[in-house]
Amino acid sequence: MEAFRIEHADVRRDGKYILSDVSIKAEIGEHIAIIGPNGAGKSTLVDVIDRRVYPLATDRYRSSLFGEERWIVSELRIKIGHVSPGQDDFFRTTYTAREIVASGLHASLGFDFHHTIDPTDWERADEELEKVSMLDKKDRTMNTLSTGEMRRVLLARAAITSPSILLLDEATAGLDFPSRADLRNTISGYATEKRTIVMVTHELSEIIPAINRIILMKNGKIVMDGTKEDTLREDILSDLYSRKVHIAEADGIYTAFC
To answer: Residue 40's Cα: distance from chain center in Å?
Structure first.
């Protein structure tokens, strides 16, 4: 089954194209990493997939999710989990970590009068918090957590609905490297044949072994779409970043340095 399809997307802000004629599709169970320099359009592309950003309404633009072009946005928020740096300020609240994770069941920030949370929902929240090593901080308010801790909570919130698509935009930013490795193992557990993961990252070491499709972006365009073996090469990445890049690989985990 097709997870999503974007055809000929153009996004323009202040007269400048952020995305230019971008097309991408993925099947359920396919896992993708998107890399490229700052300003390449990576986060904007993820927001287009999630329908948080809408491209120009040109005759050639098409977009579908799970084979359908039209969706009620509230329904999509249950089927698509999304973690990004742009959520940091929004979720830095006096709700507890446990409450924020459980509120993901309603695609809300905290709870309103019409929301009902039963004991099973709290158990699900605790299970997801345990996966990201935050169960011991479940009663801490979000505004007392570090950036790295908050990202873990938001990952648990994104995963609580068992979404068919999981969009991770620099989800491990702010974590030290042992914590990043732990969270990489957690994300690997999310990479099932019934789910598609799309990961935006500046750190090749965050790319889990289950990901074998790499999309390279630069200046608002997809410049290459291929396997790790085809894309994570010193000559390819040196051209992408316009400087000499060195690549190392160990046990299926890549690193890059200049």
So the answer is: 16
DSSP-based helix, strand, coil % in the chain, nearest 5: 35, 30, 35
Question: DSSP H helical segments within the chain, as ranges?
Answer: 42-49, 73-79, 88-91, 97-103, 119-131, 147-159, 177-190, 228-231, 234-241
Exposed / middle / buried, residue 189 (Cβ in 10 Å: 0-12, 13-18, 19+)? exposed
- Cβ within 8 Å of residue 45, ≥6 positions away: 6, 9, 19, 22, 24, 34, 217
127-158 tens-digit pLDDT:
999 999 999 999 999 999 988 899 899 999 99
What's the pTM?
0.94
Q: What value, to the nearest 5°, has the Cα angle with vertex 236 and ends 20 and 195?
A: 65
Reduced to 3 states, what is the DSSP secondary structure of residue 225?
strand
pLDDT at 168: 97
Q: Other C-beta atoms within 10 Å of 117: how many?
A: 15
Q: Which CATH architecture has domain 1-66+198-258?
A: 3-Layer(aba) Sandwich (3.40)
The residue type found at 89 is D
In the three-class reduction of DSSP (H, G, I as helix; E, B as strand; rest coil), residue 258 is classed as: coil
Contact 217, 223 (CB under 8 A): yes
CB atoms within 10 A of CB 58: 11
Cα gap 185→38, rounded to integer Å: 26
